[in-house]
Specification:
Layout lengths: L9 H4 L6 H6 L10 E2 H8 L3 E5 L2 E4 H5 L6 E2 L2 H14 L17
Antiparallel strand pairs: 1-4, 2-3
Length: 105
């Protein structure tokens, strides 16, 4: 896929290789962007690359295909939902991450 920028370049990783959640979170201003619409986020960043692991890059839109919420009240809610969606989609490769996650009832 042709990306609008290199996922490992300055625009994609701020000079250091960042993966998954960090790439998504850095696109948000915690003070000004909430409440945040999932649709607007995807409209603005959907074609941007997100490095999942050393050999896998997917688009923001592909990750958001697994997001259930339409709007996020704050940064914590955004992080929690994106983490859930990424784990569910198999995009979360941190060892032991399951022990820190409460299941949704």
């Amino acid at each position: 896929m042709d990306w609008p920028h290199d996922p490992d370049g300055e625009e994609g990783s701020e000079g250091k290789r960042k993966y998954g959640h960090a790439v998504l979170a850095k696109k948000i201003d915690e003070e000004e962007d909430f409440p945040l619409s999932a649709a607007e986020y995807v409209e603005q960043y959907g074609d941007h690359p997100v490095r999942i692991d050393y050999e896998t890059v997917v688009s923001v839109e592909e990750i958001f295909d697994h997001v259930d919420q339409e709007e996020f009240a704050d940064f914590i809610e955004f992080h929690q939902e994106l983490g859930r969606a990424m784990r569910e989609a198999g995009y979360w490769f941190y060892e032991g991450s399951d022990q820190f996650v409460r299941s949704r009832a």
